[in-house]
Amino acid sequence: MMRLPARSIAVLRLSAAALTLIAVGATFFSTASRATINPFNFFGFFTIQSNLLAAAALSATAVLVLLGRTAPAWLVLARAATTAYMIVVGLVYNTLLVGLPGGVELPWANTVLHVVFPVYCLLDWALVADRGPLPWRRLWVVLVYPVLWCAVVLVRGATDGWVPYPFLNPVTGYGSVLLYVLLIAVAVITAGAAVFGLSRLRPVTVRSEPVRTRG
């Protein structure tokens, strides 16, 4: 089994997170250069928020390694949750939305946010041995952010009329919206269960120097 130094993994994580931030920033400024853009709308998309949250979790983990400190249990759990979100982003886009109009307009940034970073997050979680088995009783944590996101979207849709995705627009009927919210919850909890399950497997090809978690 190949063993990679923990610091090398940390640098790789920071590089992946930086590429993602560059993709988000490039998309924002590219859009702003052609039309007036509302930051609250731009950063209201699940894809953008999930990429930023995953980049933050990976960066925090990497910085702790470079500082010679251990990753707390809450950070490992946060990385598990954001990995689940990125799985959902990648699967939904590449199975249902690829080729459709809308979304990220810069082709390279679109690829980073919907393909490269989701795949990286999954591989990093599956192959790097710096997380132990996560208790199933904590699985509910992966739903916290999506529930809050849906709540904010529904409030905005009912007040200022803006929604990131047409299927969440209240004008289509709250029965339809509720159905899609439930589907989002099922997708997220399924991805979360897969991530929690992977935490019980030993990496098969790549392993960093162990980083113990506390808490």
What share of the residues does DSSP label as strand, in percent? under 5%
What is the number of domains?
1
Specify the structural class. Answer: mainly alpha
Provide a count of the helices: 7
| Cα-to-Cα separation, first versus last residue | 29 Å
Q: What is the overall silhouette?
A: globular
Q: Which value, in Å, is the CA radius of gyration? A: 18 Å
For the biggest β-sheet, the strand order reads 1-3
Order of helices and strands: EHHHEHHHHEE
- Poorly predicted ranges: none
User: What is the typical, i.e. mean, pLDDT?
Assistant: 87
User: What summary fits the major beta sheet?
Assistant: 2 strands, parallel
The helical percent reads 55-70%
**What is the β-strand count?**
4
Keywords: Membrane, Transmembrane, Transmembrane helix
Transmembrane segments: 44-67, 74-96, 108-127, 139-157, 177-198
Protein name: F420-dependent oxidoreductase
Organism: Cryobacterium zongtaii
